[in-house]
# Entry
Amino acid sequence: MKHQFGFFLTVMLFFIFLFASVCDARQQELSDGMIRLHVIANSDSDEDQALKLRVRDRVLSYIAPLLSEAEDAQSMQEILGAHMEEIVQTAQAEVADSGCTDAVSASLAGEYYPTRDYDTFSLPAGEYTGLRIRIGEAQGHNWWCVVYPSLCLDPASGSAELTDDQLALIERDGTQYIVAFRVTEWVGELRHALSK
# Structure
């Protein structure tokens, strides 16, 4: 009886590991095809939080025409990199127009994002390339979304850029989504915890 239980446990662990590996590969493919937007407010004051949203809107308006030039996430990353100075100037102009003197900085780099739920989709925790905009001390709550594909601006159009497997991972419809998403989320969080 002990041998049967040991064999059963080994087989179960193998399939759990296999399923986790498949989910992890799907998350990696998803994150490789996305560029996130991360705007961090100076503080949690009402004024700074409102300014963060205005900066977000102005930066998204600036970026929107650039999206049509991108063939994929890699080319969008190159486009954003080439326009980084203008992105900072755009954000800084909104800060100045609001009567604030906080400095703005921006970077384009890989960073860990926790699981985020949006209106029609969720993104599992993991490493993503992000356009990170910091306002002032950047000590306030932040705002996240996906700038490429354009899920921030136009979820229907942006989701057209994703494969069926990627859509199945992020869209909330049914048991397969819940199990695959939760395993992917767990693997992403575990990887981040182990990398510290």
Summary: Confidence is low (pLDDT under 50) at residues 174-180. The CA atoms of residues 76 and 82 lie 10 Å apart. The first helix runs from residue 2 to 32. The radius of gyration is 20 Å.
